[in-house]
Amino acid sequence: MSMTDFLNAEDIMKAVGAFTAVDSFDHKKFFQMVGLKKKSPDDVKKVFHILDKDESGFIEEEELGSILKAFSPDARDLSAKEVKILLAAGDKDGDDKIGVDEFTALVAES
Ligand SMILES: [Ca+2]
Ligand SMILES: [Ca+2]
After folding, report:
1. Would 52 be classed as within a structural domain?
2. Which residue from 21, 82, 85, 106 has the least number of CB within 10 angstroms?
3. Ligand nearest to the CA of 103
4. How many distinct structural domains can be found in the chain?
5. Alpha carbon of residue 88 to chain centroid
6. What is the DSSP letter of 98?
7. Counting ligands in written order, which one lies closest to the CA of residue 58?
8. Cα separations (Å) of 2 from 5, 85, 91, 97?
9. Average pLDDT for consecutive 10-residue bins of the chain (110 residues)?
10. Residue range(s) defining the domain that contains residue 46
11. Is the residue at 3 inside a domain?
């Protein structure tokens, strides 16, 4: 399963291309641009499982760092600062990782 099964390849390119500068990542804008926000909760959950590469049931810091790469292999890694901001936005229960419900909430809020 890949992102382009759910999302428009051109939207992905535009969204990833909008945040090429280090420390420019804005997850709200990104989730909107990439078309994730208008997807059904089921599709958002499928995207969560793509992002959860090691299938631990959570998106951990390392997986957050490569979130852009999960959409487009040539994209950059997030900076440590961007990962911190994203984790703080998504991690509601404070376990330092993002669960599926936290992820769907994060997308819905964007
Ligand atoms: Ca994981
Ligand atoms: Ca959490």
Report:
1. yes
2. 21
3. 2
4. 1
5. 13
6. E
7. 1
8. 6, 26, 24, 22
9. 92 97 98 96 96 98 98 97 98 98 96
10. 8-109
11. no
